[in-house]
């Protein structure tokens, strides 16, 4: 009887352990967020946000001092003109915080805790007002001290993308397939456009409207008055923000195809350019080069004719959009031996950064 | 392998049901309920054999010959095992028949939990994994992101109702209660004080509600919906076969005399 009791206890415990293993890791799991200024790079990678000196790849600070798996950071941190670093938690607790970029200390005496959902998106700062999209479907409007400045605007589906602005209007896409044109002066949505699929990437702002890719595998051009048209297609889902450079729009899809669309003619500048692996990250255009990071862990520099100038394999999987800091291009791989790598325009690796374990 | 055999088919089935239902608010909860019914129908023969196996084992505990060999070979475990196997063979009883369906439930529960969390895609990384999971025939562009709202719940998160500032875990309580009711109804009556099977079942009726209630407290409420519907269907199945022991619920323990 004792043996059977032990066996029963063992089986139940085993079941509990197996099921617990399903959620043994933090509730939310995602690739890191990345931002940079001329001096530091800021990586949000789970429990911590790290500031890294871009001159040498050394850690300047990390926040918080001790890990708390209820607060997790994955959005790209946002630097403001008045010297704040803004980010919200995507964990089971979701404060929206402001840090001092130089020290990593909290700026606000109280973080904003009014949102019901996780913060997967970066906020936008316009005219000293913070517009912070949350997965609860609300766009929260805060002042630069973290106090609610106006009633939040309900947009419907979860908000994963940083809002874009032309300086007057806001363009916010919700995962429920819609792009919302918001007039911040009125504090309300003035146009809502059905994109035909979820759009996790932000819109790219052009002179007459915005360009946005979606899971409908199309690129839509949307004007402030709500008029819109599909201007290009892709072979698979478009995840990242299209990169607008003059009259050329660069974008990529989950099949790993990289596109260069001539907006004047509506024609593709090249065909069938598929360097290596699915592309989730936004493309980065700097000077005469287009930088492409792939899920396969490769990092490419293309010229404007679509020719590969150089290729590096930092490792891991790259979903985070690369950013520029001074003369360096920063790449944050996921599930790699290091959290950040810096390359110069010739593809020479300057340094890597791995947080202390 | 786990991904291909369990997660992928389950996730696709859930998404397909959700799509057929019109992928609006509350529909994912309804999809989980329909999915549970489907799983119960598919495992109906297994559950029936569990009931039958448990009943046979129970009857054996009260059998005169069985009791006699327990006494006779109490100090000779090898001989006792041989005699037990002989009786199993003579009576056509499979001693493991009552365990198998329970074991089959585990991969289903684990797979369902992973399918629900994957389908609901709380993060971009989850969404990317979902994109790799769906079969080509699915109209996935139209149906994602899934609407996780069901009644008052967010199916991707543990449930609680705020009462006077405290979160009351309603679903966890219902899960524990329905699990207890099901185990009580399926617990056969026994008059044999040394009936090991009955003691095991009694222990299960204490441990299982606590364990599943704990799961419901800590895991996505979608899995709690599965537990509740599964428990209720279990009760229906027992009742339909006429084997439900209602006396265990409402007092007045019905006893079965030992067979001669």
Keywords:
heterodimer, A: 357 residues, mainly beta, Lipocalin, 4-stranded antiparallel β-sheet, 1 helix, 31 strands, B: 260 residues, mainly alpha, two-stranded antiparallel ribbon, two-stranded antiparallel sheet, 4 strands, elongated, disordered C terminus
Report the oligomer.
heterodimer
Question: What kind of sheet is the major sheet of chain A?
Answer: 4 strands, antiparallel
Main β sheet profile of chain B: 2 strands, antiparallel
> Beta-strand percentage of chain A?
35-45%
- Determine the structural class of chain B based on helices, strands and strand pairing: mainly alpha
User: Judging by the overall fold, what is the CATH architecture of the domain at 234-357 in chain A?
Assistant: Beta Barrel
Order of strands in the sheet with most strands of chain B: 1-2
Identify the CATH class of the domain at 234-357 in chain A: Mainly Beta
Report the uncertain regions of chain A.
Answer: 20-26
The radius of gyration over CA of chain A amounts to 21 Å
Taking the alpha carbons of the first and last residues of chain B, their distance comes to: 51 Å
Please, what is the average pLDDT of chain A?
Answer: 93
């Amino acid at each position: 009887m004792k043996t059977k009791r032990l066996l029963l206890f063992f089986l139940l415990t085993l079941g509990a352990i197996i099921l617990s293993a399903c959620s043994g890791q933090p509730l939310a799991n995602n690739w890191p967020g990345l931002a940079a200024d001329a001096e530091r790079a800021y990586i949000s990678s789970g429990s911590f946000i790290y500031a890294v000196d871009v001159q040498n790849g050394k850690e300047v600070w990390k926040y918080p001092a001790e890990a708390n798996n209820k607060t997790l950071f994955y959005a790209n941190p946002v630097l403001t003109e008045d010297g704040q670093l803004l980010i919200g938690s995507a964990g089971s607790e979701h404060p929206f915080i402001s840090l001092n970029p130089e020290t990593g200390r909290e700026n606000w005496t109280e973080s904003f805790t009014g949102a019901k959902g996780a913060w997967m998106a970066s906020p936008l700062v316009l005219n000293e007002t913070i517009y912070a999209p949350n997965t609860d479907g609300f766009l929260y409007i805060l002042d630069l001290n973290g106090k609610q400045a106006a009633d939040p605007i309900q947009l419907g589906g979860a908000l994963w993308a940083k809002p874009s602005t032309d300086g007057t209007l806001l363009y916010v896409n919700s995962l429920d397939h819609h792009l919302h044109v918001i007039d911040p002066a009125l504090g309300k949505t003035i146009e809502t456009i059905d994109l035909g699929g979820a759009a996790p990437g932000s819109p790219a702002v052009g002179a007459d409207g915005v360009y946005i890719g979606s899971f409908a595998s199309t690129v839509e051009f949307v004007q402030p008055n709500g008029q819109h048209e599909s201007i290009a297609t892709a072979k698979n889902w478009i995840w990242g923000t299209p990169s607008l450079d003059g009259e050329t729009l660069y974008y990529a899809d989950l099949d790993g195809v990289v596109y260069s669309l001539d907006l004047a003619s509506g024609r593709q500048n090249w065909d069938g350019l598929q360097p290596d692996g699915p592309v989730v990250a936004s493309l980065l255009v700097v000077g005469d080069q287009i930088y492409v990071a792939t899920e396969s862990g490769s990092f490419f520099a293309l010229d404007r004719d679509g020719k590969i100038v150089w290729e590096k394999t930092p490792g891991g999987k790259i979903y985070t959009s690369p950013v520029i800091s001074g003369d360096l291009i920063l790449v944050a791989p996921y599930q790699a031996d290091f959290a950040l790598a810096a390359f110069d325009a010739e593809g020479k690796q300057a340094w890597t950064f791995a947080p202390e374990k | 392998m786990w991904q291909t055999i369990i997660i992928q088919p389950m996730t696709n089935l859930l998404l397909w049901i959700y799509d057929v239902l019109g992928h609006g608010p509350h529909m994912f909860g309804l999809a989980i309920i329909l999915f549970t019914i489907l799983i119960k129908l598919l495992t109906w023969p297994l559950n029936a054999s569990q009931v039958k196996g448990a009943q046979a084992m129970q009857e054996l505990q009260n059998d005169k010959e069985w009791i006699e060999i327990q006494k006779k070979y109490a100090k000779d475990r090898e001989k006792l095992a041989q005699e037990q196997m002989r009786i199993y063979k003579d009576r056509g009883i499979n001693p493991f028949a009552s365990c198998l369906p329970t074991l089959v439930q585990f991969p289903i529960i684990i797979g369902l939990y992973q399918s629900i969390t994957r389908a609901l895609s709380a993060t971009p990384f989850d969404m990317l994994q979902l994109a790799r999971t769906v079969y080509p025939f699915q109209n996935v562009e139209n149906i994602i992101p899934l609407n996780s709202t069901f009644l008052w719940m967010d199916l991707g998160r543990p449930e609680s109702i705020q009462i006077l500032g405290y979160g009351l875990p309603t679903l966890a309580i219902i899960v524990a209660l329905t699990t207890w009711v099901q185990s009580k109804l399926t617990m056969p009556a026994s008059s044999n004080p040394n009936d090991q099977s009955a003691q095991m079942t009694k222990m299960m009726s204490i441990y299982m509600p606590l364990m599943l209630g704990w799961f419901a407290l800590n895991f996505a409420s979608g899995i709690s919906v599965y537990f509740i519907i599964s428990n209720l269907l279990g009760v229906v199945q027992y009742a339909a076969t006429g084997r439900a022991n209602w006396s265990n619920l409402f007092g007045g323990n019905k006893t079965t005399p030992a067979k001669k």
